[in-house]
Amino acid sequence: MKSKTCDDFPWEGTTSRHVGMASADKLVANKVNIGMGSAKLAICSKLHLGMGSVSEAIVFDAVHVGMGGINHLHCLHSTSQHIGMSKIGTTTFYSREELI
């Protein structure tokens, strides 16, 4: 499945990654889902974060954050952000070429 906004990134060969209540250093996948867990780094097309936390996230298409938090979000200008009762510390926007 190719990303809608970032066809140049090799998403094929990556699968979805799910973190429940555990912690992970690095997550690289087309879709990353984190429930109450945490990750130091997440690189993905779509990120869904429940009540967990991510130190640094590089997201290409969509970010959905419920009650969790992201310290630093790196994304495209076209990346959709759906933020609930959460906190995103810093957001840095890039062009497609810069982020890839």
Give a written overview of the molecule:
With 100 residues, this protein is mainly beta. It has one helix and seven strands; from the N terminus they run βββββββα. The protein has one helix at residues 96-99; strands at residues 17-19, 23-34, 38-49, 53-65, 69-76, 80-83, 87-94. Strands 1, 2, 3, 4, 5, 6 and 7 form a seven-stranded parallel sheet that branches. The longest helix is centred in the C-terminal third of the chain and has 4 residues, at 96-99. It is globular. Mean pLDDT is 88; it is low at 1-5.
Mean pLDDT: 88
What fraction strand? Answer: over 45%
Radius of gyration computed on alpha carbons: 12 Å
Alpha carbon gap, first and last residue: 18 Å
Order of helices and strands: EEEEEEEH
Largest sheet: 7 strands, parallel
Taken from the alpha-carbon principal axes, the silhouette is: globular
In total, the number of strands is: 7
Could you write a compact summary of the structure shown?
With 100 residues, the chain is mainly β. Helix content is 4%, strand content 60%.
Question: Can you tag this structure with a few keywords?
Answer:
mainly beta; seven-stranded parallel beta sheet; disordered N terminus
Record the SSE blueprint.
Elements: E1 17-19, E2 23-34, E3 38-49, E4 53-65, E5 69-76, E6 80-83, E7 87-94, H1 96-99
Parallel strand pairs: 1-2, 2-3, 3-4, 4-5, 4-6, 5-7
